[in-house]
UniProtKB/TrEMBL annotation:
CDD domains: PBP2_LTTR_substrate. This is LysR family transcriptional regulator. Residues 1-60 form the HTH lysR-type domain. The keyword Endoplasmic reticulum does not apply. PANTHER family: HTH-TYPE TRANSCRIPTIONAL REGULATOR YBHD, NITROGEN ASSIMILATION TRANSCRIPTIONAL ACTIVATOR-RELATED. It comes from Paenibacillus alvei TS-15. Keywords: DNA-binding, Transcription, Transcription regulation. GO terms for molecular function: DNA binding; DNA-binding transcription factor activity.
Amino acid sequence: MNLRELEYFKAVTEQHSFTKAAEQLYVSQPCVTAAVNRLEEFLGVQLLERNKKEKAVHVTPQGALFLARVDNILSEIDEAIVEVRNYNSSNIHFGLPPIIGAYLFPSMFAYIRKRYPHVQFKVTEYGSRITTELLQEGKLDLGIIGQADQESISDLHSVLLYEDHLNVCVPDTHPLATRESISIAELKHEHFIVLTEAYVHHEQLMLACGTYGFKPNIVFESDEIQTVKSMVASGAGISLIVSMAVKNMPGLVAIPLEDPLPFYIYLCWKEGHHLSQDCLSMIECMRQLPLQGA
């Protein structure tokens, strides 16, 4: 039994045909048939049932049991190949939300580059929800995400980098613009301009309003923080936006909440996911980031 026989067997189960499997693998059909026959002979069981009348191939109960193991074996081998090839890699696939990418990451990157000028970053920008999923699936080396709380995240290691808070953002012509602080309860009849559910902001807004017994009147949603801010500045509504993203924007006033809504920013990586030496160095470097007052 060898790796190629396992790959051929899996291809036949996916295509339900020796001929189609051979086409997928760019080999001859007799080559695939012979490989599966050798595998069955080695195991002493029939893995596939050939139905000549239907011209189809079906997996036997023993074949289904074996296939589940084969899937795991081939996946493990693929991961091992990637890990070995990337062991000394200076390329780090990094994920983060656009808000953090625009307002926090530039200073972080400058700090890192001074200490590790050889490291190259490939950055993928999505909201915290999608970034978390990509980390859990092992599709990112490292990621920075925002959270509404300090609870641990399934399958991820995390390090708290920075703590911010959400402000109520209104146009400078709004009656509330002169307030020094405000309660969520006072926003019951306002129109909200919000980020989509891919962002923690959306969850925090829904939870905060729910605490005061009302559902926010959302009139506009966007994946772009700049669009949300511009819409608010134009007078289309108000929003809840993390403090770092609302500094010094013309036409916009940020009002602190009387009961603050925290926004925690974490560096995360997948449990059990192999990290190159440069990734490990990045984690230690980012633990020491001087982000206070960012």
